[in-house]
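Deadline looming. Please check this record:
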Amino acid sequence: MSGFQLRLGRLFNQQSGRSFVTALDHAITLGVSEGNVDALGTLQTVINGGPDAVLIGPGLLNLGGHLFADRHAPAPILRCDVIINHPFLSPLGETYRQIATAEYAVRLGAEAVVMFLMVGTDNQQMFKDNIDALTGMAEAAHNVGLPMIVESVLWGSRVQDQKDPEMLAFGARLAFELGADIVKTEYTGDAATMKDIINGCPVPVLLLGGSKTDNPEALWQGTRDAIAVGAKGVIYGRNVWQSADPVAVSRRLRDIIHGS
């Protein structure tokens, strides 16, 4: 077994075969968000919720790496690229850049890396840069023993419907073909079309959470529905740490994903 396969297996619960990941990488593009003013405090709260892994940026992993230095701690996953996703920067137009190498991820202690696949961009050069970064990272990450997660999303000026099933299916399969070991993508809102996306992607599919919902029951049910049609887990952020009780929400999600 290679190093990246070993670390890939660590991201998933042995009994359920699924993974519950909490995302805390939002500050890279969204700045200081409600619920994440105290970066280290929020990270500790997220870890207290017992996810299988935590997705964070280089700065926070560098500062808070000691919180993962425990055999029972979740696996740190490093965000290695950036897009413009905030009104402060939107006048600059669509932008994509890699911000961390596979080697740097290993030095920080990451167990996996995450990169965007910007299916919705209207910028040819940006899409080319994105593909170049993904294919380069796929090889570099495996060379140092890290799995690569690709977040395939319909963000960009060319897309009107970010939950379009056909485009999501296209993006998920493209992510796999470019070297993804796991694909993170949007839930369509419909179990049947989500099943088609999952069936067309040969690697595990994890759901992204998106903006904070005011309807937690819909979040629970959507998670159940996606799991029922083959999703291997979730990567949820704001719906966890922007809630009134992040630890309780984490435990509820963990029970849904892994069973209790």
The domain at 3-258 is CATH 3.20.20.70 (TIM Barrel). The mean pLDDT is 93. The first strand starts at residue 19 and ends at 23.
